[in-house]
Amino acid sequence: MATLSWALAKRRYKGETTSDTGGAVFMAVSYEMPLAKQHDIIPDGYNLGRDWLIGNITQSSIPTSQLTSASTYSGSTSANGYTYRSDIIYVSGLLANSSDGINHNLTVAVDGINAVDGLVAVLSVKITEKPQTQSSVFAFVLPD
After folding, report:
1. Entry pTM
2. pLDDT tens-place string over residues 18-45
3. Could you give the CA distance from residue 7 to residue 115 in angstroms, rounded to a whole number?
């Protein structure tokens, strides 16, 4: 019996902004094979990595091969006392549906299907709950 061992690779870049809305974060997500296979990307690994991230954010199963530029997902996640609401829309036209210029394009493309499907998941994230702050009250006794 053969087993496939892989890792999730994430890269992120923070966009510069002059507003206090937090700006944009650009993420590239892919499934990679282990070091023994030179961290090559698994077949369809760019699309699957993107949809793994969206599925975890929204707690949904994302049907990668059935997505369109009209696909939307929403969900909430919590960590460290914060709750985040995420609304996601898949958008076409920002990235080519192609294998041209794509790293690992020979191994990522599957059965004549391009390495990337041309869809970009655009996330709008809002903080809906913050941890309660505790005011500090100091009490001490003065000596007589």
Report:
1. 0.76
2. 666 667 778 888 888 888 887 788 899 9
3. 18
What one-letter code names the amino acid at 111? Answer: D
Among 15-19, 68-72, 100-104, the range with the most confident prediction by mean pLDDT is 68-72
Report the SS3 class of residue 57.
Answer: helix
φ/ψ (deg, to 5) at 108: -85, -35
User: Is residue 11 a contact partner of residue 25, using CB atoms and an 8 Å limit?
Assistant: no
Q: What is the DSSP string of 40-53?
A: PBPTTHHHHHHHHH
Strand residue runs (E) in the chain: 7-14, 25-32, 72-79, 82-91, 120-129
Q: How many CB atoms lie within 10 A of CB 107?
A: 14
Count Cβ atoms within 10 A of the Cβ of residue 61 and give its class: 0-12 exposed, 13-18 middle, 19 or more buried. exposed
> In percent, how much of the chain has pLDDT > 70?
77
Token pair 């049907």 in the structure block, residue: 63
Radius of gyration of the chain, Cα coordinates, nearest whole angstrom: 21
DSSP 3-state assignment of 124?
Answer: strand
> Residues 29, 70, 17, 82: what is their CA dihedral angle, to the nearest 10 degrees?
-70
